[in-house]
């Protein structure tokens, strides 16, 4: 058989093997963090981000427009209730501010002066994961804005996840509801330790909780601070249902995340002061890209915190 | 080369649609797999080479936007296109039932390949029951939506028996004589 005839006869399996081999090479490259994943991501997200941003705005606008009419009366009632609530909270804020100032003075006295509020980068969610197999979102802030891998991401309600990939103008955030996300937490009331892992269904599971640990439904979970990704005290969620059997070493519980990950629109990426350089820590949080600070931030980023794929 | 570029651009368009618009048609968190639908249509209507290259490029674009390793979607979609292109000879692709069946089979194949890749690359897979449940619901939804993809991507045609009848009518048409 001539060689061209051979290729023609077996063209299907040959094409399949070639394409699958190429895919495997990409996978190997991606697991070892080499250039293809990075360059491809830059190329695709460079094209996709602006379009995605626009389409997301149009989609949100349309959805808001449709939801305005039925929501009008409900909103009016809510508005009155919220105004009352704001009044109460304002009083509490004043009280807390007083306490915070007092604490700052005490810290200054003890020479533990440092920023109580870590600097944040505000970002907008411009896209979700196209495949149902992973729970990630894409935000419109990247390397040039000072974002780097493994930074925690918050919404106004609580923890959202952490950055897993950064590109020039966008970043990929792994949500806490993804099963690849594991967060060391502490039960705020009883100080019992555990690990919150996503369950891929929009919720989380609290694992490795000692069988004697004091946990009840409704308990608040906050980050323990023992991981290098999440600082201490970030709100993760609330315990929904506890599952324990007598004789088991650990008990576990369903957790409702504080943030509804299906509805996040704006997030704040926290620059961890310990790992960030001086420039990034003291820089004001604004929308402009801080091109000068980016290389320094990337240079000091810890590389061993990367979640295992 | 131009074909690949076209497919790459189509992939970008699809990925944008998947990550933004498809949220609107999600039912209980389940949404149809747009990339699978497109590859199924191509595998059943176009030649195998186009279908496989389309699967590869669509998967690659999806990989760059998704959370996993680059190449996972490309691998699974290419393999799915390869196996589904064999079904072309046995299915009446005009029939919506066949289209749904091929959409279901394609989505199940893709999901199985993808799950194995996830396990192989040591990603968290979650519970088996949950994975099977997700595969089934997504495949069912994709199957229901596949005829729509056929209509949108391929010019609608009359069923084959009607086409034959029309052809016969045209060939045996009698033209009345005109008097001059």
Structural features, described:
The complex is a heterodimer of chains A (about 300) and B (about 180). Chain A is about 40% helix and about 25% strand. Chain A starts with a helix and ends in a 9-residue tail after the last helix. Chain A has helices at about 5-10, 10-30, 35-110, 280, 295-300, and strands spanning about 120-130, 135-140, 150-155, 160-165, 170-175, 180-185, 195-200, 205-210, 220-225, 235-245, 250-255, 265-270. Chain A is built from 5 helices and 12 strands. In chain A, a hairpin with a 4-residue loop joins strand 4 (about 160-165) and strand 5 (about 170-175). With about 300 residues, chain A is an alpha+beta fold. Chain A is globular and about 85 Å long. Chain A has a 6-stranded antiparallel beta barrel with strand order 1-2-5-4-3-12. Chain A has a 6-stranded antiparallel beta barrel with strand order 6-7-8-11-10-9. By secondary structure, chain B is mainly alpha-helical. Chain B has one domain (about 1-170): Orthogonal Bundle (Arp2/3 complex 21 kDa subunit ARPC3), CATH 1.10.1760. Helices cover about 70% and strands about 0% of the residues of chain B. Chain B is built from 7 helices and no strands. In chain B, helix 4 (about 70-85) runs antiparallel to helix 5 and helix 5 packs across helix 6 (about 130-155). Chain B is elongated. The mean pLDDT of chain B is about 85. Chains A and B meet through helix 2 and helix 3 of A and helix 1, helix 3, helix 4, helix 5 and helix 6 of B.
């Amino acid at each position: 058989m001539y060689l061209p005839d051979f290729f023609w006869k077996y063209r299907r399996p040959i094409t399949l093997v070639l394409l699958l081999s190429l895919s495997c090479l990409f996978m190997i490259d991606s697991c070892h963090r080499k250039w293809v994943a990075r360059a491809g991501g830059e190329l695709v997200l460079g094209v996709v981000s602006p379009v995605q941003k626009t389409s997301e705005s149009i989609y949100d606008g349309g959805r808001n427009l449709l939801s305005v009419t039925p929501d009008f009366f409900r909103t009016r009632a809510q508005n009155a209730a919220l105004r009352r609530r704001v009044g109460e909270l304002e009083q509490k804020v004043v009280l807390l501010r007083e306490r915070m100032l007092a604490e700052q003075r005490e810290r200054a006295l003890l020479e533990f002066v440092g920023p109580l509020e870590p600097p944040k980068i505000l970002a907008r969610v411009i896209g979700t994961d196209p495949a149902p197999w992973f729970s990630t979102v894409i935000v419109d802030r990247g390397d040039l804005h000072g974002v780097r891998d493994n930074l925690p991401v918050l919404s106004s309600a609580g923890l959202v996840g952490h950055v897993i990939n950064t590109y020039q103008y966008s970043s990929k955030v792994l949500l806490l509801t993804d099963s690849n996300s594991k967060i060391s937490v502490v039960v705020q009331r009883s100080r019992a330790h555990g690990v919150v892992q996503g369950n891929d269904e929009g919720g989380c599971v609290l694992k490795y909780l000692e069988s004697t640990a004091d946990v009840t439904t409704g308990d608040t979970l906050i980050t323990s601070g023992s991981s290098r990704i999440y600082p201490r005290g970030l709100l993760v969620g609330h315990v929904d249902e506890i599952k324990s059997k007598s004789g088991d070493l650990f008990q576990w519980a369903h957790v409702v995340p504080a943030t509804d990950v299906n509805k996040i629109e704006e997030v704040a990426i926290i620059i961890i002061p310990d790992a960030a350089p001086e420039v990034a820590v003291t820089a004001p949080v604004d929308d402009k890209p801080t091109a000068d600070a980016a290389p320094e931030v990337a240079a000091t980023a810890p590389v061993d915190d990367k979640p295992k794929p | 080369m131009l074909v690949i570029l076209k497919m790459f651009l189509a992939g970008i368009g699809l990925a944008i649609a998947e990550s933004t618009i498809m949220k609107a048609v999600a039912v209980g968190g389940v949404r149809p797999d747009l990339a699978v639908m497109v590859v199924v249509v191509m595998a059943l209507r176009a030649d195998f080479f186009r279908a496989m290259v389309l699967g590869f490029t669509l998967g690659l674009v999806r990989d760059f936007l998704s959370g996993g390793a680059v190449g996972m979607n490309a691998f699974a979609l290419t393999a799915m296109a390869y196996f589904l292109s064999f079904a072309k000879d046995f299915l009446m692709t005009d029939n919506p039932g066949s289209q749904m069946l091929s959409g279901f089979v394609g989505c199940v194949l893709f999901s199985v390949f993808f799950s194995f890749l996830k396990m192989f690359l040591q990603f968290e897979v979650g519970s088996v029951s949950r994975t099977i449940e997700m595969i089934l619901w997504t495949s069912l939804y994709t199957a229901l939506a596949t005829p729509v993809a056929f209509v949108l991507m391929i010019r609608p045609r009359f069923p084959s028996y009607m086409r034959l009848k029309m052809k016969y009518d045209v060939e045996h048409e009698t033209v009345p004589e005109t008097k001059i």
